[in-house]
Amino acid sequence: MTLSVLSVASEAFPLVKTGGLADVVGALPDALAPHGVATTTMIPGYPAIGKAIKGAKVVRRWPRLLGAEARLLRARIGDHPLLVLDAPALFARPGGLYGAEDDWRRFAALSRAAADIAGDYDVLHAHDWQAAMAPAYLRYGSGAARRPASVMTVHNIAFQGHFDAAVFAELDLPAAAYAIDGVEYYGGVGFLKAGLEAADAITTVSPTYAAEIREGRFGMGLEGLIESRRGSVHGIVNGIDPAIWNPDRDAALPSRYSARALGRRKTNKRAIEKTFGLEAGGGPLFTVISRLTWQKGMDVLVTCLDELVAGGGRLALLGSGDAHLEAAFLAAAARHPGRIAVRIGYDEPLSHLLQGGADAILIPSRFEPCGLTQLYGLAYGCVPIVARTGGLADTVIDANQAALAAGVATGFQHGETNYHTLAHAIARAIAAYARPDLWCTLQRNGMRADFSWSESGRRYADLYHSLTGTA
């Protein structure tokens, strides 16, 4: 039996992307298809989307969808169906996708529209706070002909969509919905909280993160709710698309290679040195490809850079974020010209080059629901150095004595992110790099691991079938 799923999100690769959410939403249809699941993706009609789906068919209209005229357009994303909520008053705007004063209205409208059509599907799958009101609209009544099963995926519980209580009157919900087991949250309206209350099942993007968010340190105020629903919480690790992230076929690399031909990576390393103005050297070339934020542990990494250079390492950084952290990394580059280089911003082809030529990638996150850059690093032989948290802990095998003896190590883990743990992990990596055979083993182990969507797709399909009684 083929199951039909409506996957609702605020972004989806390759049409629109600000982060890993888009990669996951874009990859799920292909991941689920081999397991008897047909996925329709629903996203807002941002300006860039309209240009990409010219000639799309109108399949539904709303004269007033939370105060805005809206149409639903049918198109395709790759080989799979796509629905676009065309509401110019809400989404046809220049600038970034998020941060507008009326984000509550924009994404409540997306959720309401999804709930209205969800009866045509077996499962409604909402992603993050921007789509989280969809299960709530199903719970409290919508225009759906029937109520499908619902799944709420938390990609990062730190982003919750918490708004003033005054918006409730305009959400087109019954008064009973404003309750502690409904949409009310700390005296306001909580979009993610509402989805977590209403959905039949909750997923997060790694097993460790699913356990972590039951604790106050990681739950961001929602740990009590997660704990109360622990029997419905599932951790499913994200995958990566080998059609996009494959060093043997990557057009962004000057030299393509495989686990059997690691020597070809040297050409890519030279290209990084030239692009970033780095000196050639015998020590490891580290990279960072990240948002420069507290969550990512970038404030701690800055304090370790002098020691990294003193140990013979170099660093090529690509990222942007908090102004004071951007300034701190640029200051480190000024202190160590030719040893540290920084590119503020984001460049997709350059990120591929960094994975394909740097020796190791630093990911010292304080919390990380899943993480994708470490998966790209493993696939590209760019050895990950990660904090022991969330998906980082689930996907990187630390090069401790037991793992080395068993021949399964793929990188380096460190404990709670601070100067001492991170500096020690960097020192361990530098020492391992001085042993070429050991380093090549770490690279090959990572490259041979399977982080495709195959297993994750099966687990999502199993969850859908269990919710619909079709297992």
Report on this model:
- The chain has 471 residues and is an alpha/beta fold.
- It has 2 domains: 3-239 and 454-468, Glycogen Phosphorylase B (Rossmann fold, 3-Layer(aba) Sandwich), CATH 3.40.50.2000; 262-448, Rossmann fold (3-Layer(aba) Sandwich), CATH 3.40.50.2000.
- Helices cover 39% and strands 21% of the residues.
- The chain contains 20 helices and 18 strands.
- The protein has helices at 20-32, 47-52, 88-91, 103-117, 128-131, 133-140, 191-198, 207-212, 216-219, 223-228, 265-276, 298-310, 323-335, 348-357, 373-380, 390-395, 401-406, 419-433, 436-448, 454-468, and strands spanning 3-8, 37-44, 57-65, 68-77, 80-86, 123-127, 149-154, 162-163, 184-185, 188-190, 201-204, 233-235, 285-292, 314-321, 340-344, 360-363, 383-387, 412-414.
- It has a 9-stranded mixed β-sheet, sandwiched between helices.
- A hairpin with a 2-residue loop joins strand 3 and strand 4 (68-77).
- It starts with a strand and ends with a helix.
- InterPro entries: Glyco_trans_1, GS/SS, Starch_synth_cat_dom.
- Its EC number is 2.4.1.21.
- GO terms for molecular function: alpha-1,4-glucan glucosyltransferase (ADP-glucose donor) activity.
